[in-house]
Design goal:
Length: about 220
């Protein structure tokens, strides 16, 4: 009973920690806090198995798990904040998931039509991305190219791969280690808008960078 109550208090306290998102003005629970809570729950369960005769194992295990869970969440939190600050007004969207950060780069600001040559005006934006990636180096950088459904699948797959490779090569030129990268051409798969309209097709022509912390 004691260990169960301790765990409930710990997790409830962590889940109740909210902040105000400076970009939306909405109250939110920090991803680091949720990571801490999940780590606490896992650690407490493990601790309880180790020390069945008292609540100490659950409490100690919960605190240890909280440190681990909070570390991963915090690592993503600080990267997300810096990326939003660096990429404000660039046209690049920063999307946060529980275990990764996704940068969505529209095709109209990254490449010319039917080309894998990066627009010179986009170099500064990629420099900002490289700056953050170099600062937080313990992650895998997945670069994916996407197209609309115009043209053959073979052409689109080749073009999307070339564009993803061009972005990865530029970031590597700014000091991001090549060993961190995974490069994929996705072609017209996974559209984020309808291909039935010009506006929708423009959204689907994009490069995405997914930043995944190493475990």
């Amino acid at each position: 009973m004691k260990k169960t109550l301790s765990l409930i208090v710990l997790v409830s306290f962590l889940a109740g920690c909210t902040t105000v998102n400076p970009y939306t003005g909405e109250a939110q629970t920090s991803k680091a806090v949720w990571g801490t809570a999940i780590g606490a729950a896992t650690g407490a369960a493990t601790g309880a198995l180790v020390a069945k005769k008292s609540g100490t194992g659950a409490i100690v295990g919960g605190l240890a798990g909280a440190a681990l869970g909070g570390g991963v969440g915090y690592y993503l939190d600080v990267q997300e904040a810096e990326l939003r600050a660096e990429l404000a007004s660039t046209g690049v969207s920063v999307v946060r998931a529980d275990d990764s950060i996704r940068l969505i780069m529209p095709g109209n600001i990254t490449f010319k039509t039917d080309s894998s040559d990066i627009n010179a005006g986009f170099y500064a934006t990629l420099n900002s991305v490289a700056k953050v990636l170099n600062k937080y180096s313990n992650s895998t950088v997945m670069v994916m190219g996407f197209t609309d459904n115009t043209g053959s699948d073979a052409y689109n797959m080749t073009l999307s791969r070339q564009r993803a490779s061009a972005v990865a090569a530029y970031l590597q030129g700014q000091g991001v280690k090549a060993s961190r990268f995974e490069i994929m051409g996705m072609g017209p798969s996974n559209p984020i808008a309808s291909n039935d309209t010009a506006a929708g097709r423009a959204q689907n022509r994009r490069v995405e960078i997914k930043i995944i912390p190493n475990k």
